[in-house]
Protein: Aromatic amino acid aminotransferase
Organism: Streptomyces tateyamensis
Amino acid sequence: MSGTAAQGPRLRASLDGIPTYKPGKPAGADSFKLSSNENPYEPLPGVLEAAVAAAGSFNRYPDMAAVELTEELARRFEVPAEHVALGTGSVSVAQSLVLATAGPGDEVIFAWRSFEAYPIITQVAGATPVPVPLTGDEAHDLDAMLAAITPRTRLILVCNPNNPTGVAIRRPELERFLAAVPGDILVVLDEAYREFLRDEQVPDGVELYRSRPNVCVLRTFSKAYGLAGLRVGFAIAHEPVATALRKTAVPFGVSQLAQDAAVASLRAEDALLVRVQALVEERTRVSAALREQGWPLVESQANFVWLRLGERTVDFAAAAGAAGVIVRPFPGEGVRVTIGETAANDLFLSVAEAFRKEV
Ligand code: PMP
């Protein structure tokens, strides 16, 4: 056996610098998980029934074209069915978008801090991440993002509202930005938290996409629709982007359970949106209580709040964990805390109050 073979297969050297995606810590039986922006509600009975019915045929491959779900989405958003591209959660659609646009030598711009998968999927494609720091108000610095464009830029990821800060970009700013981006650069509006938005000045990405061939929208069933565990997300994109997505996606990536549950969720949308409204009201309550406690808080339009804690981030996460609430720390920066069930939110608020008094 040669020396090289004994060391095992040779992997791409560039992977060494790429971190693995870190999910929120799982919750123990006696703690609340507020670290992954999940929906705290159990599946609606009708949605569960649809998934259970599909489970009866999981010896078969799913419908790869996902005809029913695609048509349902196309109807709902009033777009051609060919413009809908599904994936194994919107993170995999985001990865397909990177693979479709950028390779070695190409650049992908995104705000930072933002969704932690962006630099990972960029580097997995062999492309170069160009993170652009958020403003002091935790918002996208769109002027700096424009200034970061080079002849090598292929893709710009815009997270609206932003994960983990919750801050959303309003219409005039976003329209000005889109008008200034060269038409050969794809702009992805990642609207994973869209349904939690209540600021009417924030535009709907689907409306922005309609007249702009280089703009596409990313949505997910994981958050407002409560299907995180089933893994289904989608893009709405013009040709040829949508066609490219169908090429770069892993075949059969959306199970029949996921497809059927997603269709049932769209049909049960009214009931699901009542739950979303309850979470938005909890967000308002939690935000007001935090401000009352003296926390400087930016306004979140998503299903989480952001506490900029700097050096005290890890201590806060540990204190929360000890009290039975798992939050998401970004060491040196802050913690993101999902809005969950009332009891979980109350426990988080009591941790925040005690921590605030200590310092
Ligand atoms: N985009 C953003 C901004 C997110 O925060 C997340 C999940 N944390 C995703 C995409 C991916 O979600 P999923 O793959 O579950 O659709």
In short: The chain has 13 helices and twelve strands.
